[in-house]
Amino acid sequence: xxxxxxxxxxxxxxxxxxxxxxxxxxxxxxxxxxxxxxxxxxxxxxxxxxxxxxxxxxxxxxxxxxxxxxxxxxxxxxxxxxxxxxxxxxxxxxxxxxxxxxxxxxxxxxxxxxxxxxxxxxxxxxxxxxxxxxxxxxxxxxxxxxxxxxxxxxxxxxxxxxxxxxxxxxxxxxxxxxxxxxxxxxxxxxxxxxxxxxxxxxxxxxxxxxxxxxxxxxxxxxxxxxxxxxxxxxxxxxxxxxxxxxxxxxxxxxxxxxxxxxxxxxxxxxxxxxxxxxxxxxxxxxxxxxxxxxxxxxxxxxxxxxxxxxxxxxxxxxxxxxxxxxxxxxxxxxxxxxxxxxxxxxxxxxxxxxxxxxxxxxxxxxxxxxxxxxxxxxxxxxxxxxxxxxxxxxxxxxxxxxxxxxxxxxxxxxxxxxxxxxxxxxxxxxxxxxxxxxxxxxxxxxxxxxxxxxxxxxxxxxxxxxxxxxxxxxxxxxxxxxxxxxxxxxxxxxxxxxxxxxxxxxxxxxxxxxxxxxxxxxxxxxxxxxxx
Length: 532
Known about the structure:
It is built from eleven helices and 24 strands. By secondary structure, the protein is α+β, with helices and mostly antiparallel strands.
């Protein structure tokens, strides 16, 4: 056997086995990092290193994931908690996707124009996702609501207006599809102002979607006729048309149905995954519905086949986006039940000393804790015959009445028309001789709600059967009734105020009133405005 010129023996050739060769196992790259490097990445943000002798704590970063092979192709799997942690680390909790329809300006210009023209208050980070799409990372939840509250924004740059629509960003974002999640307002007309607390409104709104905020008039108690809540709603789900309130009192449990009123909800096509039209009007499934001008436009078809430039992508004259053809990934998991997304919080006391509902307590959005200053927990939604119902106990109703300043509430009913509510807010306290602050709002036609802050004003309004409210030279007659949880504009309250007299007891005092000797007479000798 000869050696090579290097002085080394030639390599020995080994015969392969008769069986099929074994495919080498792929390396687990996560094990190639030294322990010191791995620990540095996992615990760099404040997590405790187990090797240091401390207890087991949840790492503040997601560790390196092993690679698994499925049908010969690499796969990396992340848990739900890890995805939530990564979303927080990448500042994507309040992320919004801006989609431009008629081209888009330079990204450097958008970083200045979007915060200014959209009136954003906090810091935002804006970057290009792909053609026509920008990612806007908001640092404030208020800015997220601002961007999502309008269906379309007109961004002006150097004399050109660019139309931008906003969508909620998700982990399953696809530039060829539009999300089915939208932000809209719902109204609850006729709902008693007892339930205008944030916790109660969020409990009710959870039946329709994910509650986000209540409007200013509802928060300031200036519009008792209707509550409005901003919610995140899924267009693919069925939207309930009404809900039921059950409340307990001395006589038992009373219930009443109230309607849901949705603001504008865009249509959604499940075929092309775009907002703006339904499946029955989809141009891909029904080409005959496409306008004739676009069907015979050969130049337009040739232009669509070419790569679109930044300023050449436009929406047709119909106002609908052009059909986008592409491979759709597998359908993501079904959306969660929004009523169960609120985690319980020990900072909210439980009125009934029972376990807080699964969806109760924390009304935060995106993971940050924001306990509410209320003692009524978030109520679970019960479905009766497929329709949502929210139940409140007697003590809870009493607490809600106190929180909404309804303890000394009065209903003013006008008989022959009524002036503007802005005029009544100044005229009623002045012309009725009220001494303290009152809040006045329109309940419904001919009815106003007057919230008194002191008992003396309550007695003043209830001691007379009729008040004459003058606007310039025109008088309006207003009758007053005690407000009740079961208020109905078609009915009048059964509670009335009057005078009683005791002719056989001339030296009687209020403290020694013998209730068994009451005589109900309309003789103004001894006023008794409230029960002792």
